[in-house]
Amino acid sequence: MDAGAVRNVVLVHGGFVDGSGWQLVYDLLKHDGYNVAVVQNPTLSLEGDAAATRRVIDAQDGPVVLVGHSYGGAVITEAGTHPSVAALVYIAAFVPDKGESVSTLIANPPPGAPVPPILPPKDGFLLLDREKFPASFAGDLPAEQAAFMADSQVPWGTDALGGSITEPAWREKPSWYLVATEDRMIPPPAQRAMSERAGSTVDEVAGSHAIYVSQPAAVAATIEQAASASAARQQVR
């Protein structure tokens, strides 16, 4: 770890999964000397997930690099206004602006873009089609691992999908974005457009939507880049 780097990292998962998918990224960051915490979002509502994230940030000693994957990007956009957050890192993630939600961002997919195999809502929750999950979410993972992720899905609340941003943290905080160029859940052009709008520092890596599982070294490198760059900003403040 860079001697001057921000040393606390908080990892926020997206929809359909839980925080255990961060384990390889967690292990790499811990090995490099970072303090790492993983938020377990209930994924019932954006408001609730932002509150859960703020509680974890509150527990950290010092400035934090806040990281979100997929829907977790909406969560960190909402929770990242917390004064301890020094930087935001989006991993193949949604980056909504004020008044936007994941629901509005996916409402009009570009022509020819793959459409995520989300099943119709049931009792206020969403799941991905189990048979189509591996190709859409985890195309570069071993078949057995992708099947396990499909079978262990966490139901995603429609209130989380529809929760809109009150004040987007990226308008005040520096951000980094890792584009997954083989993503079949959030089209790479959409990732590039959102990261450009946010003024993020962008890396691109060949990987599926589950890039945080399949390419942990690339993900950890982007997070560490943010941690190092944010140190200088903290010293100036």
UniProtKB/TrEMBL annotation:
Cross-referenced InterPro entries: AB_hydrolase_1, AB_hydrolase_fold, Sec-Metab_Biosynth_Hydrolase
GO molecular function, one term: hydrolase activity
Domain AB hydrolase-1, chain residue ranges per copy: 9-221
UniProt keyword list: Hydrolase
Pfam families associated with the record: Abhydrolase_6
Superkingdom of this protein's organism: Bacteria
PANTHER family per the UniProt record, alphabetical: AB HYDROLASE-1 DOMAIN-CONTAINING PROTEIN-RELATED (PTHR37017), ESTERASE_LIPASE_THIOESTERASE DOMAIN-CONTAINING PROTEIN (PTHR37017:SF11)
Name of protein: Alpha/beta fold hydrolase
Source organism: Pseudonocardia aurantiaca
